Amino acid sequence: MADFDKIFAKAKEIAEIVADASVELYRTAEEKTKLVARITKLKAEIAGEKVNIRKLYSEIGKKYYASRIAELDGGEPQAVDADFEVEEVKAHYANIVLKTEEIEALKVTKYVTEDDIDIEIVITPTDDDDDDDADDTDDEV
Length: 141
Known about the structure:
Layout: H1 2-72, H2 83-107
Helix pairs in contact: 1-2
């Protein structure tokens, strides 16, 4: 019976070690998942900032084009007032820098490696971007 008690005690000890390791593995996986999710969210927000910048550049171009058309039609040369759009572009770029810095800070943590976050979000222009801007309210990020 003494051998059975020794075997039982050893099995219990091994089971406790496995349980402790499982809990630690779970915690590590949970933290890593949260970090990767946060990085993915930040990358999506950066993509949204880039879309907003592209729209602002389009607005600046439309204003410049309208002023050039008026000038070519014999009108007085007009200065293009795009100060608001330029400031908005600067603000979006500043947001991109902040979010990129946050991503880099998150990558430094011990649970995330570069292999975990190979997600790349690419925004490609479509033919719809050249159409009337009446449907731009759906594009807000």
